[in-house]
Design brief:
The chain contains 18 helices and 15 strands. It is an alpha+beta fold. Strands 6, 7, 8, 9, 10, 11, 12, 13, 14 and 15 form a 10-stranded mixed β-sheet that branches. The protein has a 5-stranded mixed β-sheet with strand order 2-1-5-4-3. It is globular.
Length: 484
């Protein structure tokens, strides 16, 4: 032990212990234990564990960008109800004259962190954004999703479960996206892909780093592998209830980015960072559970799906063009959905065709689900899952006439919008999104997307443009945004 380590004796828990501790909290979370239980338990841990120095509090803005603040542990324990931040500095949040917002810790989201990824002595919590008066902030879709999931369980007995499949690319160089050059493009770390990656290749070492961290965080890994395109990756893990699933999407991307940086690389979740090879998606496997049983399973139903599952599918497909902007909120996403290429851009459901917006995977009583394939990995997971679940429930609760209208879309064989300009138009003119999001958020989202869309031509062409990368909502910063 060196002298610096002796002086800084901060929390540094072995991975096997981290896994056990995080899975225990996850089990309590999935058992729907009350908020007071988690608050008392986690505060007691903070008070007793002197090696914890800071609590990383995180939240997500309207576009889906992940934000983190480190609070001193003692400050959190003494002033948990006074965690404030400047909302006017977050794009799409509050104006300058109404800048003060609060963070309310969701103690059930508490996780112990791998020290080699996040630094020693830290734990992380997800937060819900509140107004100055302590009321829920309408633009925080994590809190909106929590409220929706709670009401759905109480009123209908449905528990929403989600398993995401998130693809990405490993690029050569740190901050490769921020330093993007149109002439040079982005450099892949390897030309191998899918089953063509040796055990000690950079891509495989990166995947192993991420997988180990995910296990420690309680993800319950299932498989991890290179994807079809060169230098493309995907790490799969077990389904979770809908809010926990959205949290894990944000943690997944954070872990990947940090692991890549430690190797002198960049983990990119741009939907189509390089032309001529496959783009990346975030397939959302969605189902509803009731009375401890999978409500989407019916052994006698079409493709072994229940009537409720098909009603959910019909509603999602009926609103496909209107919700496309939510699932594909960046200019770059429409390169992946280009109708001239094989992509999940057809507004239909299929058991086999992976060009369908919705696929019905092979399933049984436990695994029956629907897979929404048209979602980009840069979408806001809370907003996307809120819309997805809302439309699914809308289909199930629809009148007989509405259900007939929703079902008719399967005969049309249409495609999703091929550019962000058309997607904005469908989103702006539709009634469902305005009702589900609320008029203020609906208009805010339109304004945010128009702000970047006007910098891009309707016909994207065959070359990745500088502005579509550096103006991307997960990449831009003040310097990049104002340099126009």
């Amino acid at each position: 032990m060196d002298s610096e380590t002796k002086l800084r004796d901060f929390l540094n828990i072995p991975y096997d212990e981290l896994k056990k501790m995080n899975l225990e909290v996850k089990k309590d979370r999935q058992a729907q234990k009350p908020e007071a239980y988690f608050r008392a338990k986690m505060r007691a841990h903070l008070e007793s564990q002197v090696a914890i120095k800071a609590v990383t509090a995180c939240f997500t803005d309207l576009e889906g960008r992940f934000h983190m603040l480190d609070y001193d542990k003692d400050f959190v324990l003494a002033g948990e109800d006074n965690l404030t931040f400047d909302g006017s500095s977050i794009k799409g949040f509050t104006p300058q004259d109404q800048s003060d917002l609060r963070l309310k810790i969701d103690w059930a989201s508490f996780r112990w962190l791998p020290a080699d990824i996040f630094g020693p002595g830290k734990v992380i919590v997800f937060c819900d954004v509140q107004n100055k008066d302590g009321q829920p902030y309408s633009g925080c879709f994590r809190s909106r999703l929590k409220e929706f999931a709670r009401d759905l369980l109480q009123e209908s007995g449905f528990l929403a479960n989600v398993s995401p499949e998130i693809e990405g690319f490993l690029l050569r160089g740190v901050d490769a996206e921020q330093n993007f050059d149109e002439k040079q493009g982005l450099e892949l770390v390897t030309k191998g892909g899918y089953y063509h990656c040796l055990p000690q290749d950079d891509l495989r070492r990166f995947i192993d780093l991420c997988a180990e961290a995910q296990r420690a965080l309680g993800f319950e890994n299932e498989k991890d592998h290179p994807e079809v395109a060169p230098s493309q990756f995907e790490l799969n893990y077990k389904y979770d209830e809908i809010v926990g699933a959205a949290d894990q999407i944000q943690l997944y991307k954070l872990v990947c980015r940090q692991a890549a940086k430690s190797m002198g690389c960049t983990a990119s979740f741009l939907p189509k960072p390089i032309m001529g090879i496959n783009g990346t998606g975030m397939h959302l496997n969605f189902s509803l559970q009731k009375n401890q049983k999978n409500a989407f399973y019916d052994k006698n139903g079409r493709a072994s799906l229940s009537k409720e599952a098909w009603e959910a599918v019909n509603s999602i497909l009926h609103h496909a063009k209107e919700i496309c902007l939510i699932f594909n909120s960046s200019i770059n996403a429409y390169r992946r959905l280009d109708p001239h290429f094989e992509a999940p851009n057809e507004i239909k459901a299929s058991l086999t065709d992976r060009g369908s917006m919705v696929r019905i995977p092979i399933g049984n009583e436990k695994s029956a689900r629907i897979e929404v394939r048209s979602v980009a990995p840069d979408a806001n997971p809370y907003l996307g899952l809120y819309v997805l679940a809302s439309l699914a429930v809308k289909g199930i609760n629809a009148s007989k006439l509405e259900k007939e209208i929703f079902a008719a879309v399967r005969e049309k064989r249409e495609k999703l919008p091929g550019n962000i300009h058309d997607a904005i138009r469908y989103f702006a003119n539709g009634a469902a999104m305005k009702e589900i999001l609320g008029e203020e958020n609906h208009q805010k989202f339109i304004d945010l997307k128009k702000e970047v869309a006007h910098r891009s031509p309707r016909d994207l062409g065959t070359k990745i443009k500088y502005r579509e990368i550096v103006d991307h909502h997960e990449i831009r910063n003040q310097m990049l945004w104002t340099d126009f």
